[in-house]
Structure formats: C-alpha cells, structure tokens
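Box 3.1 — From sequence to structure: Eukaryotic translation initiation factor 4C
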Amino acid sequence: MPKNKGKGGKNRKRGKNEADDEKRELVFKEDGQEYAQVLRMLGNGRCEAMCIDGSKRLCHIRGKMHKKVWIAAGDIILVGLRDYQDDKADVIFKYMPDEARLLKAYGELPENIRLNEGIGGLDEEDEGAGDDYIEFEDEDIDKI
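Predicted structure (token representation):
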C-alpha cells in the first residue's frame, strides 16, 4: 500500500480559531448593503433573513465564510444587495453578539429588533410549559 503523503487530516484543515480572541473593528453598512437578522437556515449555504428595510430576502453565504463562520437563526448579519434581484442578497459579514449590541446602541439597528434570541424566542415555550401537567393537592388525590 502507498504511504500517506499528506500533512494531516480533517483537524489540521480546521486549524486553530484564534480570530475570536482578537477585538475586531466594527463594520458599518455602506451603500448597496443592509443589516439583516437571520430567520432560518435553509441549507446549501443559504438562509432566509429579514432586512432592516422590512423586506424578507433569500441570502447566499459567500464562499469565504462558508464552513468557516457559522450562522444560526437570530444572528445579525450584513448583506450585500443585488442590483438585478431585489429578493436575493449575499451575506458579507456576521456580527458577534457584542458587536450587534454596539450597533443597536449606535442607532444603526432599530430598537424593536431582538438580539441574542432565536426567532420565536423562548418566552412562548415557557408560558405553555405549565399546561402539560395538572397539579393536585393531597386532598384531591384522596377523592380520586
């Protein structure tokens, strides 16, 4: 059998993720770009996002970010708008939670946008959780 001539496997390709430790400069939108919040991931490098201008767009994650920057529902992203397709956009940048809070503080994001939560939120699930079980007092159990 031939010898392996490679320099490592899957874990070597992943590398060390040292970029998270560094404080990076906050990126603001330019013309032809818009802030958006991810509604849901669709697979195949695509996601559905609600842009700040009020329109829902199908976004394509560019190759530089694909499999390197993980995007989930509820994340704040910067998308590049297309001149020829208004209902589609390209994901340019993903904001970390602290960067998204800074954007909101600077007034770049509207106040009604919810950060750090998935779409739908956990509040709705917590309210309905108590309906699954019926609590009985000790006296009630004796009657049954």
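Summary of the box: Residues 97-106 form the longest helix (10 residues).
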